[in-house]
Amino acid sequence: MAFQRNGAALAARIDAPSLPLDTILLGDCIAELEKLPAASVDLVFADPPYNLQLQGDLRRPDQSLVDAVDDAWDQFESFQAYDAFTRAWLLAVRRVLKPTGTLWVIGSYHNIFRVGASLQDLGYWILNDVVWRKTNPMPNFRGRRFTNAHETMIWASRGADAKGYTFNYEALKAGNEDLQPRSDWLFPICSGAERLKGLDGRKAHPTQKPEALLARVLLSASKPGDVVLDPFFGSGTTGAVAKRLGRHFIGVERDRDYAAAATARIAAVVPESEESIAQAPAKREAARVAFATVVERGLVPPGTRLTDERGRHEAIVRADGTLGFGAVIGSIHRIGAIVQGREACNGWTFWHVAEGRTLKPIDAFRDVIRAEGALAG
Ligand SMILES: C[S@@+](CC[C@H](N)C(=O)[O-])C[C@H]1O[C@@H](n2cnc3c(N)ncnc32)[C@H](O)[C@@H]1O
C-alpha cells in the first residue's frame, strides 16, 4: 500500500514511470518488492534487522537501563529463521536491481557475516566491505569485551560479471584532497538535533543511521535522478538524504509509526541546489582531448622532456603530438608502455613535466583544455 508521496521537485530523469517514486510502501518488504518491476532500481541501501542476541537487560554502572534494540522486528527464532528471511529479501532485491545496480547492506557482528554468506550464495559479487568506525560508540558497560565501535557495510553488484555500476571515483578522490577514497569511514552515531524524537521526547526509532553515512553512500554509488530503494526504511534516513541530494527514493517499512515519522521528516527536507549536486563527469566520459592539442596549444611545447614520476624514464615531445624515445616514435601511451617493458600504459598519468622542483602529470594540461570547453559550453 502506498503510504505517502512527497512532492519533492526533483530534477530527475524518470526511467520507469510505473515506479512508486518518492513513496513509502507500508508493508513487508518481500511482498512489496514483488510488486515492483524487475531491473528498475539503481541502488539499494538495506539496514535489515540485526537479530541482536541480547542476554537479559543491559545496565550502565549506575544501574540505569540501556535503551538497547529489543523490538519485536529484530527478533528471530533461530539463526536458520534469520537466514531464511535474509535469503528471501536478498532475492527480492536482486530481482528489482538494474544490471548496473548495486546493493549496500549494513550490519554488525550479530548478522553481517550471515548476510555476507547468503548474498555470495545468491550470486551477488562483493565489491568492498566498508567499515563505519564510530567516533562516539556506546561503551562496553560490563568491561568484558572490546567496545563495539564499528559497523560493516557490504557493497555488492548483482554478479561477478556486472559492468557499468556507478562509482564516482574521481569526485570522491577530488573531495578527499586528491587521495584515493578508503574503505574505512569515520562518523559519529546519530545524536543531537538530527535524532528524531517522539512527542514523549524519546527516540522515534532505535537504530536511526547518521545522514552523513547515507550521503557518502549515495554520493559514492549513485547519480542525481537515480532510484534508491530502502527495504527497511525505519525513520527514513535514506529517503531524507536521497531527497536532499536529488535522487528518488522508494522506502518499505512495515511499522506504521516509523513510516509516519519518516514521512514528516522527509517533507521537511530542502533539496540542495541542482548546481551543487550535479554529477561530475568521470574522466573516461569527459570530452576527448588529444595530446597533439595540448602540444599545439603550447601547454607542453615541442622539445619538452617528459619523465615518469620518479625520473627513471624520459622521452621528448614532438611537434605532431607524438613522443620520441631514441629512434622510436609513438603515442604517449605506446612510448610509456615501451620504456617500462609493458603491454599498455596510460600516458596521461605516466608522463610528467618538471615545473620548478615538482613534477606535474600531463593529464593536468588536458584538464585545462577541458575546463575551457566547459566554460565555453
Ligand atoms: C535497522 S532498522 C532501519 C533503520 C533505518 N536505516 C534508519 O535510519 O532509521 C530496520 C527497520 O526495518 C523494519 N522491518 C523489519 N522487518 C521488515 C520487513 N520484513 N519489511 C519491512 N520492514 C521491516 C523495522 O520496522 C525497522 O524499522
From TrEMBL:
Residues 41-262 form the DNA methylase N-4/N-6 domain. One of its GO terms (molecular function) is N-methyltransferase activity. SUPFAM superfamilies: S-adenosyl-L-methionine-dependent methyltransferases. It catalyses: a 2'-deoxyadenosine in DNA + S-adenosyl-L-methionine = an N(6)-methyl-2'-deoxyadenosine in DNA + S-adenosyl-L-homocysteine + H(+). GO terms for cellular component: cytoplasm. InterPro entries: DNA_methylase_N4/N6 (IPR002941), DNA_methylase_N6_adenine_CS (IPR002052), RAMA (IPR040843), RM_Methyltransferase (IPR001091), SAM-dependent_MTases_sf (IPR029063). The keyword rRNA-binding does not apply. GO terms for biological process: DNA replication; methylation. The keyword DNA-binding applies. Residues 272-368 form the RAMA domain. Its EC number is 2.1.1.-. Keywords: DNA replication, DNA-binding, Methyltransferase, S-adenosyl-L-methionine, Transferase. It comes from the Bacteria. Belongs to the N(4)/N(6)-methyltransferase family. This is Methyltransferase.
